Amino acid sequence: MKQEENERYEQWLQQVRKTQPILTRPDDLTRDILQKVARTPRKRKERRKFMTWASAIAAGFLLCFTVYEIFFYSVSFHADTRNAPLNVSSLPSCLPEWSASCTAEMTIKEKGARLSEMWRARKAKQHEQKRLIHQLVSNNH
Amino acid sequence: MNQEQIEELIDRSRQNDMIAFAQLVSEFQTMVFRLAFRLLCNEDETRDMVQETFLKVWLSLDKYDGRCRFTTWMYKITCNTCYDRLRVLQRSPSAFSSDFVPANENWKSEENIEEALANKELQDLILRFTGDLPPKQKLVFTLRDVEELDVAEVISITGMTAEQIKHNLYQARKQIRAKIHQIETDL
After folding, report:
1. What is the pTM for the complete model shown?
2. Looking at residues B54-79, what average pLDDT do you find?
């Protein structure tokens, strides 16, 4: 039975191998292909390549600008004007009061550090208040 | 056509020479059609995929570096195109028309009808036992057992490892034998 199956398999495979599909109307197919190709010029690809390059250059400039802002701007700035505080009255009212402690000419890195420090102090203050309230409540009981 | 002539046609095609590309198309379209038909088993689908393949060849001619034979590179693009189509057809078989329907007026000539019927017979012959194979197994089986390519070439075409090819081929053969057994038992 197994041998019969093997023979049947081999027969079928041989038949598939030797029977070639026939390409009907090959000239029509060639013409269709060439028409399709003519409608799709390679320029489209070149345009895409140009767009990729332009985007890469723009991204590079943006990255350089960010790096410059973070690491180099503070070095070139005059020390005497760096720590001058912002005019609080000129700030929009929606900003919290601690925004005023950031000077106009601070770098992004410095601003970040200052704000983190303030955030930590505020959290510590809140924690202390909670602890006092908790202590007060437990004393009353 | 020898490799030198092919290289020359490729170079000319890269410079948008449509006559050279037309020569490449007429030289290789039968080969591409044969492989695509054995994978898709449908003449209309195959004609569409042949067009798709040559469009990809046209757009990727700059990427052909001559490290492999041009036929291998063509096989690779044909296989990728047909494999994608097989996956789509596997998900929605309704998109696939296996019925023999003359497509246009040209089919009315006696010769064309004979050729179309011969293709339909071949389609039935292949689909009888491979109709249920997953696309990956069908691809490996067609390249290794029907097209009789060696493992190195199949690796280069499919990007699979030797183990993956061995596994897929084993599974495909097993499934075909099971189908043969099933049909023999039913008879």
Report:
1. 0.67
2. 92
Put simply, the answer to whether B146 touches A17 (Cβ < 8 Å) is yes
- For residue B100, being part of any structural domain is answered with no
At A8 the three-state DSSP class reads helix
Report the candidate in B78, B82, B79, B86 with the shortest Cα–Cα distance to residue B28: B78
Judge whether residue A82 has pLDDT over 70. Answer: no
Mean residue pLDDT across chain B: 88
Position B11 in a domain: yes
Q: Which residues of A31-40 are buried (b: 16+ CB within 10 A; e: fewer)?
A: ebbbeebeee
Residues 6+ apart with CB under 8 A from B100: B116, B117, B120
Would you say residue B47 lies in a domain? yes
Number of domains within chain B: 1
Structural domain spans, chain A: 108-141
Higher-scoring residue by pLDDT: B91, A33 = A33
Chain A residues touching B43 at Cβ < 8 A = 21, 24
Question: Are B25 and A34 in contact (CB < 8 Å)?
Answer: yes
Please say if the pLDDT value at position A63 is more than 90: yes
Taking the C-alpha atoms of residue B6 and residue A126, their distance in angstroms, rounded to an integer, is: 79
The domain that contains B18 carries what CATH number?
Answer: 1.10.1740.10
Q: Are B36 and B82 contacting, i.e. CB atoms less than 8 angstroms apart?
A: yes
Query: Is B175 a domain residue?
Result: yes
Considering Cα of A24, then A26, then A31, then A32, what sign does the dihedral take?
Answer: positive
B113 pLDDT tier (thresholds 50, 70, 90): confident
| A9 touches B: beta carbon within 8 Å | yes
Enclosing domain of residue B159: 3-94+107-186
**Closest by CA position to B28, among listed B43, B6, B12, B48:** B6
Write out pLDDT tens, residues A85-137.
555 455 555 555 555 555 556 777 788 888 899 999 999 999 999 999 999 88
Q: Find the CB nearest A24 among B51, B112, B148.
A: B112
